[in-house]
DNA sequence: CCGAATTTTCAATAATTATTGAAAATATAT
DNA sequence: ATATATTTTCAATAATTATTGAAAATTCGG
């Protein structure tokens, strides 16, 4: 397979992958393109490679910057802005986990805390099932939260070697 | 907070949560409703509680069955079908992980295997960056795949106690 | 400060995805 | 076998989300 074709496939499947994870296709494709580009790219480079409009490109680049996955690069003597993606995949994964934890897991845990305090007789099976469900989700969620915190601090080498042994 | 209000909030936030994870809102809401229902429900029960059409309810129940999260229950003397959700949250999480691994992670790893074999001189920086990226994603992905396999087999007690210690 | 290059915004539009509801298919009791 | 209850399908429609492109704002060299 030629590079040009392999790039296409990588970008398009990264885009499809993203859509299964609540990330829009274009954002994932821009990320993919930057991941495999040896040098920083401009907006125009990306527009051309991916056949997307200027507005779309701009909005998604900024979203990637918000996620901490892409950063602006200043090239001396150049008027245009250049962009580059973090290439260390372990860092990328940690960054995504960190953001999603903050945006989704933490608010969910807060809500569950409130819901656990529902009024009523705990002997009523409707109350009991509700509280039991909320408590068990909360318990697992808190556990996941702590585990992810540890992961976010960890080195990749730790993940690959130690965790693997642990999981015997 | 009264039960009726707490239920509403639980269902609606579980629905919103789902949409961030590539699951449609209705499917997540049906799942939420079944999780907090002490007894099995019929399609009509769900339609009424969630204010959704028969077709929508039916399709999403079947999708939940495909995911292994909901099952049909036969109630003796009843003509209608009843449905119930797995209440053990750890089992629910494992089931979701198992399905997503099969549907998304494994196909991605297969693709990366193909892409790694791209033609060309590895000293060309375009080729090199591409291959390096593919290889590092593949490495991490394979690791995650194995780790998730172990998790799928694990008991919740193991997760809550042992894993926690491990993560110091 | 001026003017050109570049970036950002956002209303309009397109594309995608979810939902409805009625008809068709299926199951069951008598 | 027939009538009735129940489930399933799916074309039409609605709702949501993504994308465009041109105008406005900003940046920067001179």
Please explain how this structure is put together.
The structure is a homodimer of 168-residue chains. The first copy, chain A, is mainly alpha-helical and 168 residues long. Chain A folds into two domains: 3-85, Winged helix-like DNA-binding domain superfamily/Winged helix DNA-binding domain (Arc Repressor Mutant, subunit A), CATH 1.10.10.10; 89-166. Helix content of chain A is 70%, strand content 5%. Chain A has helices at residues 3-19, 25-35, 43-50, 54-66, 89-116, 125-153, 156-166, and strands at residues 70-73, 82-85. In chain A, strands 1-2 form a two-stranded antiparallel sheet. Chain A is elongated and about 70 Å long. The two termini of chain A are 38 Å apart. The mean pLDDT of chain A is 91. The structure holds a DNA duplex (30 and 30 nucleotides).
Please sum up the structure shown.
Chain A is mostly helical and about 170 residues long.
Range of strand content of chain A: under 5%
The parts of chain A where pLDDT drops under 50 for at least 5 residues are: none
Averaged pLDDT of chain A: 91
Classify the secondary structure makeup of chain A into a structural class.
mainly alpha
By DSSP (H or I, 4+ residues per run), the number of helices of chain A equals 7
Largest interface: A-B, 59 and 59 residues
Oligomer type:
homodimer
| CATH topology grouping of the largest domain in chain A | Arc Repressor Mutant, subunit A
Helix fraction of chain A by DSSP (H/I, runs of at least 4): 55-70%
Largest beta-sheet characterization of chain A: 2 strands, antiparallel
Rounded to the nearest angstrom, the radius of gyration of chain A is: 21 Å
Q: Number of folding domains of chain A?
A: 2
Q: Characterize the overall form of chain A.
A: elongated
